[in-house]
Amino acid sequence: MRPMMSPPLLSPFPCPLLRFLRLYHAPRRRNPIAIAAPPPPYSSRRRTPLLLPAAMSSSASTTAPDSVVADPSSLARKVAAIRAAGPAKLQVIADFDGTLTRYWYDGARGQSSHGLLRQGNEEYDAKREALYQHYHPIEICPDVPLPEKAKLMEEWWEKTHGLLIEGGLTYEAIKKSVSDASIAFRDGVVDLFEYLEERDIPVLVFSAGLADIIEEVFRQKLHRSFKNIKVVSNRMVFNEEGRLVAFRGKTIHVLNKNEHALDMAAPVHDNLEDSNGSIDDYSLVKKRTNVLLLGDHIGDLGMSDGLNYENRIAVGFLNANIEKSLKDYSQAFDIVYLNDAPMRGVVGLVAEFCQ
Fold first, then answer.
1. Following CA atoms 236, 237, 242, 245 in sequence, which dihedral angle do they give, to the nearest 10 degrees?
2. What's the pTM value of the predicted model, to 2 decimals?
3. Could you list the residue ranges forming a coiled coil in this record (predicted)?
4. How far out from the chain centre does Cα 83 lie?
């Protein structure tokens, strides 16, 4: 990963954080501007983008904005409130796949933490793929009522977990799957984690995938641990031979990954053999009532459900289908980063909180 440069000094007027963002000011809660970004070529219309200096751009040859803010005044108010409360009141809640990780990998769609898994048994890999082909259209279908969809998603996850156990998944297979995977963190993720760790700001990584795989991705792709990061996801139980025998706790799927699942969390470190999967007093996390939420789907906004927060800034990563989805994303998120953008702007936002 290319190391980030230190963020520049901020201008006090009119909104300091805008110096970190290469953005369009989209009309307030109206249809935002279509973005011109190769490839494919999108056409910009009506408004002129406010651009960062060239030295801060992710690519000198790119003229399109990296982000869109629909309501700069609202964002500025939230930033001011979080800054006034200080780092001790702040926590970061982040999705994993497509948020902390890149959407594209060597010109193709990168793998997810669930999709990369090969359990060393082609028959069971094929069975899991068949479940995906059956349930995924239900997951993305807007016409299925949420209560019905939630039940079907839990059914899908539990069938998949059953196949992993029945097919004899081992931890060695997880290690090999991650080693062979087309998955990588966004540029700037390490800078973000280090900045947050230095200031004792906790990061909760919520995922409907598998905590053990996510933690292995951290080990192999970042080559270090962070004491402030906790993974809230489905956690496996292995026997002495390293074979999967069970899953711990409640099943976490795409429609229930939120702070109600904190009892599943465990820190990312070298020893994950904690007796109950949790070593922290999560009441302390719940007292951090200012939230920076990072996600790549509108449904990720639900990750803060269960937390009585005072201020929340939601950052969305819109990695593809920009013209189709930008309106909805800009209405749902305070900031929308485009085209698989790096984490540079988020680091700048956190620096603004900690002034």
1. -100
2. 0.78
3. none
4. 23
